[in-house]
Amino acid sequence: MSALSLVVRDSNTMLRRNLLHARRYPSLTLNLLLTPVMMLLLFVYIFGDVMSAGIGDGGADRSEYIAYIVPGILLMTIGSTVIGAAVSVSTDMSEGIIARFRTMAIHRGSVLIGHVIGSVLQVLISLILVGAVAAAIGFRSTDATALEWLAAFGLLALFALALTWIAVGMGLASPNAEAASNMAMPLILLPLISSAFIPADTMPGWFQPIAEYQPFTPAIETLRGLLLGTEIGHNGWLAIAWCVGLSALGYFWSKSLFERDPK
Fold first, then answer.
1. In 3D, which of 14, 249, 30, 254 has the Cα closest to residue 117?
2. Is residue 136 part of a domain?
3. 119, 36, 118, 120: which is closest to 77 by C-alpha?
C-alpha cells in the first residue's frame, strides 16, 4: 500500500471517530450553533429597525437589513463552530489518547486531518441550518446566479478550513479544554468588530482600520457581493489571501505543536 493510501485510510478512520464523538455528544455543537442563530434573531427583531438606519443612507427597512446581516452571521457561524475543534483537540491531548495513537502504526498527521475534515463538515451543516433560519425570516438572494452561489459556498468552505486549522493550533497550545475554549473566543468576537452589522465607514474614524483590516470584513463584503450584487472590489482577493495565509499559518503551527515530543 502506498504512503498516500495509508494517509487516506488513516485519515478516514480518524474522521469517522470524530464524527461519532460529535454524534454522541451533540451538546457542544448545538451550543456553538445557537450563538449565531440568537444573534441573527436579536439583531433582526430587536435592533433591526434601529440598525437599519446605518445602511442605505438611512432609508433601509428591516427586510433590507436582513439581507445585509446574513452574510456576516454566516461568517460568525464559522467562527463559533470551529471552537469545537479547539476543544476536541485539547481534550484528546489532555486525556492521553494522542499518546496512545503515537504508539500505533498509523500516519501521525491523520489525527489532525481527521479533526480538520470533521470540523469543516460540521461547519457546513451549521451553515445550512443557519441559512435555513435566515430564509425562514425573509432572507432572499434572487439576483445571484448558480455560479455566484457556488463561489459563495466555496468561499465559506475555504474560510472554514482556514479557521479550523487556527482552532486546531489553539487546541494543541492549550493545557485543557476550558483554556482552548477561552483562547478561541476571538473567532467569535472578531465578527462583532467587522462590517457584519453596520458598514465600516459609519464607525468612528479611529476604529475603521480595525474593522477593515481583519479577515472577516473582506470575506463578508465578498459574500455580500456574490449573493446580493453589491460591489466586491478588492475584497475578493483580500478574502482569498486571508484564507490561504491563515490556512498555512494554522497548518504549520499545528504541525509544529503536534510533532513536539510529549513531556
1. 14
2. yes
3. 36
Can you list the alpha helix ranges (DSSP code H) found in 25-145? 27-45, 48-51, 62-81, 83-95, 97-102, 109-136
Rounded distance, CA 129 to CA 139, Å?
13
Question: Does residue 22 fall inside a structural domain?
Answer: yes
27: pLDDT confidence band, cut at 50, 70 and 90?
Answer: low
For residue 263, being part of any structural domain is answered with no
Q: Which of 139, 162, 154 is nearest to 79 (CA)?
A: 162
At 38, is the pLDDT very low, low, confident or very high (cuts 50, 70, 90)?
confident
Q: Please tell me the predicted confidence (pLDDT) of residue 32.
A: 67
With beta carbons less than 8 A apart as the criterion, state whether 153 and 222 touch: no
The three three-digit cell numbers of residue 114, written as one number? 481527521
Gap between the Cα atoms of 35 and 169, Å rounded: 23
Residues of the domain holding 139: 3-258
User: Distance between CA 246 and CA 91 in Å, rounded?
Assistant: 23
- 203's CB contacts (< 8 A; 6+ apart) are 211
- Give percent helix, percent strand, percent coil of the chain, each to the nearest 5: 80, 0, 20
Number of domains in the chain: 1
Task: Answer whether residue 240 is part of any domain.
Answer: yes
pLDDT of residue 121: 87
Distance (Å, whole) CA 84 – CA 164: 9
